[in-house]
Amino acid sequence: MVSSPHEAMHRVFQDHPGLFTGVSEALGVRFTRPTSVRVMPTDLTETSPLERRVDTLLRLEAEDEEPFLLAIEAQGKKDPDKLASWAYYASYLLTKYRLQPMLLVVCQDRATAEWASRTVRFGPPQWPLLTLRPLVAGPHNMPVITDPAEVRKDLALATLSAITHVSNPEVGTILKAMTTVLRDTPHNLAAPVVELVAQGMGKHPAAEIWRKLMAVDLSFYKSPIAQEIRAEAKAEGQAEGEAKGQAEGQAKAILSVLELRGVDIPDDARERISTCADLDVLARWLTRTLTAVTVDDLFADE
């Protein structure tokens, strides 16, 4: 099953096709910003039963440069079989489209990123036939963007940076910078980013940080993740309201029984009973009102 971080790591390029230029510059490889980008079919299936699909495929064009194909793979762990698949993608794309292929691999952990970034040669060691050298973006080389001003310069790059740094100790500061900028970003631009970041956090602890920031900083957003957070908060609020009502009813019952039995209730004891929110404690006190001689008998052994 494809995980949500897997989807976010390559889908951000579909939503922001020009993102590759910023990523490549951040990784120390310069590509001219494309003047035209077209999302291509991702199905690389042969007529044989074998089926292969690249995660995202883009056709990039720039002035005074030949167009090329950019295949983007989101890689969650080391997988030796992927090396042959990536080589297949490159040769297939070149054969089908007669355009030079480029492979970008996006990772969320350093070990996988370093594994994917190795140069791999296929063929006899005396004369390798193919050389695979993907460009890799991951926590080992993507910028850590904690300054809202930097986020504002390139929101798409900041989005991918946040996703790749999901395990970074500074992830809270990274995500806070994102919500600071998203508050002032037009909804049609910000909403997809909100969802991509939520997907990218997956089941990491950072997901809860993002949810809390969404609830506080971006509470006005109408998006699936925001609506989910609000629904949970509403349910929690209703549960808290019901519990509070039960506690108040129990406290009133305790005070009424004591008064009916003529037991003196000092102000401090009345306050203690009235403000107690623990239903189990209140139930115990209510039982004791039937035999209590003084109000202190309610609090015995507590």
Automatic annotation (TrEMBL):
<protein>
    <recommendedName>
        <fullName>Transposase</fullName>
    </recommendedName>
</protein>
